[in-house]
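Chapter review: from sequence to fold.
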Amino acid sequence: MLCRFLLFFHIFLSKINVMEIKEIVSYFLNAESNILEVSFRTIKDSDDVLRTDNIDYSISEEYGYVLESEDFGFYDDEFEDEEDYYEDPKIELDEEVLMSFLNEYYEVNPKSLPKPEYY
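The token string follows.
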């Protein structure tokens, strides 16, 4: 009896769509278009699978998330006169908060979850 229950429970768990992001591989926030491009893996994905999505950044704010990291400007003066200074630095996001947002976003919108792609 216990064996049948465990088998049923295993089948039940495999049927429901449990999705959780285990790793953010990369992200880029385009400040001009306000689009967040993010690549990640879920707990069901193998290491040779990647999912990539483009999400309007304002959606994260609608969900109540502030994804941008605190920038204290420690190195701003160091590069002031150098020619190699990059005028438009990458916007740093808090990856833990980003992961929480994405988990909630895809839980509410499961059809928006990108298909896994092998690379």
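Two observations follow directly from the output. The two ends are 44 Å apart (CA to CA). The chain has a mean pLDDT of 82.
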